[in-house]
Design brief:
12 helices, 21 strands, Rossmann fold, 4 domains, about 40% helix
Length: about 500
């Protein structure tokens, strides 16, 4: 009797949510609007609505992030060659960005509060267009002052003006990204008068010291960072990505460690970190990419505030031989194979519109690196009872299920759930993927085979990646009616101790 009553209650909740979603779909068609949804437990606390809105905004920003990855980064070269690398550096953190022009609707669903972050594409595009034109005027005026200050030999004031202008340029780049995603049609009019490389060259000349080693390059970055932040702030530095990928390497984490260590020489700060199970990053975060340029290596980093807005940047360039002398690998171990597979994943890294799912590790959901022997914990939050499947794609090409059908029941909806198993990082090392499928109806059985690895038996997928994705995503597309579904993918780099 109790099971029947619970089933009826769950079905009723699903019916309410789906009916509401159908009505909202008519009210806010996807061709004209982006709509993020967030849920919070209704405890009669005024904070419940705030939490739901924060989650709705995160969902909206995640949709924009997915759009950037799948459609728009390649177009940035045409919009402005000078911003493409900085924009690619932003892709992995844009999900934390605060989006302007959003209006809100909230619904009391009894046990839960639901919030919708509604963004009219046309209205928001116009807003971002006007904001961007204003930023262009400010940047032009600032650069004219820089030229005058440098001409009079006042390099200290010129440098501070350049850092202030760099902050404006970061806002400009983010605005252009979002404007493009919203379908803005006047992209050529938003091309900056002064290029990012022109700005960087001035900063580089005024901050340049002799770079004779990798340590000198790190110190150059730290000096630039110190001029753009206040003493005493909490700062979290994340491993750096390799070029325009989400891939890491041993060098990725080495750069993070060296910035943490050397930054204290220039400015006192509080060491930030990701708390296991935490939904938010506190204080400032530093993330970036490193690039190979023939015989040169370039490191680009961006400084973000808690809202996800880029408030600063830094760049250095030096011979690759300096990095080679460090003695750690700067390319992911399985880079060629991982790049080929990444194209299959990127076709549908995130499925939106049905099931609202958050999913992360004890090291967050971006710039993730685990060293041999470290433990990985998994956390999820869903807005509806659902079955979860986790597939781990190893660096050697094998794919093993971590969970085939883990059920999140009504009592855990909209709460952070730590999954019971703990996983230890072990060989093979390289770029790997953790893929999660969620569905309100049980997922189809997997085609598995048993293999022996170093004396241990493991169940792995018998299908190759293309076959597996076609079968699973085909199932998702065919289901209709009451079935809700979602997919998420995390990129994880594993390295030896």
């Amino acid at each position: 009797m109790h099971s029947l009553k619970l089933l009826v209650n769950i079905s009723f909740i699903l019916l309410v949510v789906l009916s509401l979603g159908f009505a909202q779909g008519k009210k806010y068609p996807s061709a004209l609007y982006l709509v993020g949804e967030g849920y919070a437990e209704n405890t009669s606390n005024p904070e419940d609505g705030t939490i739901a809105k924060e989650r709705a905004m995160s969902d909206l920003a995640n949709q924009i992030q997915a759009s950037v990855k799948s459609e728009f980064v390649s177009e940035l070269t045409e919009a402005s060659n000078s911003i493409v690398e900085y924009a690619e550096s932003k892709v992995n953190v844009i999900s934390d960005m605060k989006i302007e022009g959003v209006r809100w609707e909230t619904f009391d669903q009894g046990e839960f509060i639901m919030a919708q972050a509604i963004l009219s594409k046309d209205e928001a595009a116009e807003l971002y267009y006007e904001r961007t034109k204003e930023l262009q005027k400010q940047i032009d005026a600032n650069m004219n002052r820089v030229t005058s200050l440098m001409g009079s030999g006042d390099n200290d004031r010129a440098l501070m003006e350049l850092f202030a202008t760099s902050k404006l340029f970061n806002q400009l780049e983010q605005n252009i990204l979002i404007y493009m995603i919203l379908g803005g049609r006047n992209q050529k009019e938003l091309k900056p008068t002064f290029s990012r490389s022109h700005l960087d060259d001035h900063i580089y000349k005024l901050t340049e010291t002799d770079i004779n080693s990798f340590d000198d390059a790190i110190n150059g970055l730290c000096f630039q960072i110190s001029k753009q932040i206040q003493p005493g702030q909490k700062i979290t530095v994340f491993p750096f990505d390799f070029q325009d990928t989400a891939f890491g390497s041993a060098l990725s984490d080495y750069i993070r460690q060296q910035i943490n260590f050397n930054l204290n020489k220039f400015i006192k700060f509080q060491q930030g970190k990701i708390e296991p199970g935490s939904e938010k990053r506190e204080g400032l975060t530093i993330a970036g990419n490193y690039w190979l340029r023939a015989s040169l290596m370039e490191i680009i980093l961006l400084i973000y505030d808690e809202s996800g807005s880029a408030i600063g940047s830094a760049r250095v360039e030096f011979p690759i031989s300096f990095a080679e002398k460090v003695g750690v690998a700067y390319k992911p171990q399985n880079f060629v194979d991982a790049s080929a597979e990444d194209k299959l994943f990127s076709k549908s890294e995130v499925v939106y519109g049905d099931l609202n799912v958050d999913f992360w590790t004890n090291k967050g959901d971006q710039n993730i690196i685990f060293r041999g022997g470290e433990e990985m914990h998994l956390y999820v939050r869903l807005n509806t009872p659902a079955y979860l499947r986790f597939i781990y794609h190893l660096a050697n090409g094998m794919r093993t299920p971590l969970y085939t059908s883990y059920y999140i029941d009504q009592s855990k909806v909209n709460k952070i759930v730590e999954l019971p198993d703990v996983f230890e990082c072990a060989p093979p090392f390289g770029v790997e993927k953790l893929q999660m499928f969620a569905s309100t109806e049980e997922l189809p059985d997997l085609n598995l085979k048993t293999v022996e690895i170093e004396g241990e038996s493991y169940d792995v997928l018998a299908d190759d990646l293309g076959e597996f994705l076609a079968k699973t995503r085909g199932f998702v597309k065919k289901k209709t009616g009451m079935v809700k579904k979602a997919e998420r993918v995390l990129t994880i780099t594993t390295v030896a101790k």
